[in-house]
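Amino Acid Chain and Its Fold in Token Form
===========================================
Scope: a single protein chain, as residues and as a discrete description of its fold.
Amino acid sequence: labelled as such and written in the usual single-letter residue code.
Position: the record begins directly beneath this header, with no further notes in between.
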Amino acid sequence: MEPGASVRAVRSQRVLCGDEIRPAVILIKDGKIENILHGVDVGLVASAEVLDVGEHLVMPGIVDCHVHVNEPGRTSWEGYWTATRAAAAGGITTIVDMPLNSIPPTTTVGHLREKMRAAAGQCFVDTAFWGGVIPGNQLELRPMVQAGVVGFKCFLIHSGVDEFPHVTHGDLHSALQLLQGTDSVLLFHAEREIHQPLGDSGDPCEYSTFLSSRPDVMETEAIRMVTQLCQQYQVRCHIVHLSSAQPLQLIRAAKQAGAPLTVETTHHYLSLAAEHIPPGATQFKCCPPIRDTANQELLWAALKDGDIDMVVSDHSPCTPDLKRLESGDFTQAWGGISSLQFGLPLFWTSACKKGFSLADTVRLLCQRTARLCRLDNQKGSLHPGYDADLVIWNPDKEFEVKEGDIHHKNKLTPYLGRTLRGEVYATLVRGRLVYKQGSFSQQALGTHLLLSHGCTQASL
């Protein structure tokens, strides 16, 4: 069966049904899961429409709710065509595009429509959109909710691009008041500027110099403010890309007090450690920064304990020149890591050694991310009535990340040459085979996902 085909049934000896792996056939009708039959008898379905994947594992497609596609405006960095192909190759069936670093950013209804026009006909997987909160755009928030964004993102520190300025305390109070009663969610880049004593600036080519410029306390103080606002307004709040374990006590206390707070971390904070970053290796730079191994172990523990709710890519690519590889200057390089295609194997490579199950993987990479975006009525689970979004992969097979296999527009990533565990064989989006063994469907088969009055609508 070739990419682009409509699949009526997927048969495997290994289908993840809840917490159990068993032989099953997934029947598909009109892009939805019609039924899951235990055993491998496909009944009356024509054999030409049955995708038999043998011993490959079948589970829900990944929902990556933190992706910077950068189109329109910065298509030399990334774009919908390349980003969503990379997603499909990584078993991701839904992405949610951040409101920056596109130009214009998604901070008005008009800008949302401009972004959707840019994405039309280019998405190989389903795509939803975050709106942005910036100073002065409060009157756009409710119209953007009505237009279908899944929520909003703001920065408490300079975003890295001038067209998406960070908010003030007053902006946050206004935004949260407006979002009350909408069931929307406000995402926070949770770092705040602090006054640090002046000292030796250090060698800009040493990673430790950059790391010391973004200490843990910047996250702690930002999260302290977020937890207070979340409890005050009882609007859903979400911490993006938690890198420091120090604020975990604040997070735990806020959740126990009833705050509607969720937290994500990323594959790079769980996979990479500061002490192993070579001098000048600016492909490792991101904000907040990658911290040390001891901190990383605390993040894994928090993930197991439920203090961290989900894991995402925070795919944030740029052109190679912006990484300043020639000078190796961490202080001048763009902060962002490209990893969209490799999220599933990155997670599984470490998680399988730390006692996490495949069911945990679905919970952390599929179900919780879908729930954050209110897409969990159709995405992230294998149940009748849900979209037939499937990743078919071999969790035991190892592979090396090679430049020629990367489908992101810019190939620079800290994972080049790394051996990962878990190779994606095929990806289905609403019953269509969009990726199989290195090949893609000729057409981009994804849709735009817009929320409306509590329901999700697909918009071609």
User: Anything to note?
Assistant: The chain has a mean pLDDT of 95. The first strand starts at residue 9 and ends at 17. The longest helix spans residues 216-233.
